[in-house]
Amino acid sequence: MPQLAGELGSKDPAVGLRAVAVLRRLLEQIERLHVDNARDLDWSWQDIANVLGVSKQAAQQKHGPRRSAQEEGK
Amino acid sequence: MFERFTDRARRVLVAAQQQAVEARHGFIGTEHVLLGLAREPGGLAHQLLDRHGLTLDVLRPKVAAAVAVFIDDLGIDEATALASIGIDLERVRASVEASFGQGSLNVTQPPFTPKSKHALEQSFRESLFLRHNFIATEHLLIGFVGEPEGLARQVVADLGVDPEQLLDEARREAAPAFFRVSDLYAEIRDFEARHSPAEDDVTKAALIALSQGRVNAMQREAAALDAASVALASELELLLRNAQSAVDAQSGP
After folding, report:
1. Residue B196 to residue B204: CA distance in whole angstroms
2. pLDDT tens digits, B152-183
3. Which residues contact B77 (CB under 8 A, 6 or more apart)?
4. β-pair partners for B5
5. Does ipTM exceed 0.85?
6. Residue A2's closest CA among B80, B78, B93?
7. Considering only CB atoms, which chain B residues are within 8 Å of A38?
8. Of A43, B89, B121, B252, whose Cβ has the fewest other Cβ atoms within 10 Å?
9. A16-66: per-residue pLDDT in tens?
């Protein structure tokens, strides 16, 4: 609950580090969903990379293999 | 790679995940897969573990103790952790699922540790090595208990079972014909060593036939699955017997 955020935003490293770890997983999952969606809508790797603020190579290296596996599976 | 998994092997991975979730460990380590193997009855891995007294009841407290050495058992769930930095997981989930469908966000699903991923790859390689075209619980056992410095291996060793011996048993029972073939190769090499250099024509001919047969067999073996190894084993056995009896007849009275 957001209202708990203040109380829970403690200096306890156990809580903070766990939050970082979960946030990272959350971020990765949401990135994957949106990249897949963009590719399904025929966005180029360059366009995706521009919006993500990374190089085309970085975007393609990270998501390309998964996408080709998915497309083969279809 | 997952389409090659047997149903039982899939259930082992699901069970491993449940073990990790129940223990609130937040990751799936080699030790959770070991628990999954012990929990899923009927497979070869389960039989092997059982034979060495490695049952779920024996393993679970050992795993809990071993994991506790590495992480303080935090007991903080994902939603609470995210709330501490002002993120409401339920709201994130609701809006993501509104666009991408139910279950599209799976943040509570613990990820595999790097060692577990490596062990999974090893299970796959083990299946290839044994000329199998499927991945079953025994391949998982070999991959996960075989993982160097993995907790699965450590827990097994702590319980007084030699991990290497366990792996060896698993390999031999997973692919008996395959090991029969390698044992026969060893016997043939031994035969060749005992009889060469051959002085008489019969022994020479027997040695040539034997090594030619072995080369042919090895060429075919590269493509053979375990089922084909059964045929290969009887072929090699016949070769060896023929060579032996030719030489015996020669040296007899």
Report:
1. 8
2. 999 999 999 999 999 999 999 998 888 888 88
3. B24, B108
4. B135
5. no
6. B80
7. none
8. B252
9. 787 888 788 888 888 999 999 999 999 999 999 999 999 999 999 999 988
| Residue B63 Cα, gap to closest chain A Cα (Å) | 21
Contact in structure between B59 and B39 (CB atoms under 8 Å): no
What residues in chain A have their Cβ under 8 A from chain B's Cβ atoms?
Answer: 1-2, 4-5, 8-10, 14-16, 18-19, 21-23, 25-26, 29-30, 33, 37
B27, B85, B99: which to substitute to probe chain A, counting the most A Cβ within 10 Å?
Answer: B85
* Burial class of residue A62, CB neighbours in 10 A (0-12, 13-18, 19+): middle
CA distance B243 to B222: 24
The three-class DSSP label of residue B135 is strand
Residues of B in contact with A26 (CB under 8 A): 82, 87, 89, 92, 105, 107
Cα B43 from chain centroid?
Answer: 12
**pTM for the model:** 0.64
Rounded Cα gap, residues A20 and B110, in angstroms: 14
Q: State residue B47's pLDDT score.
A: 95
Instruction: Report the distance separating Cα A21 and Cα B144, nearest Å.
Output: 24
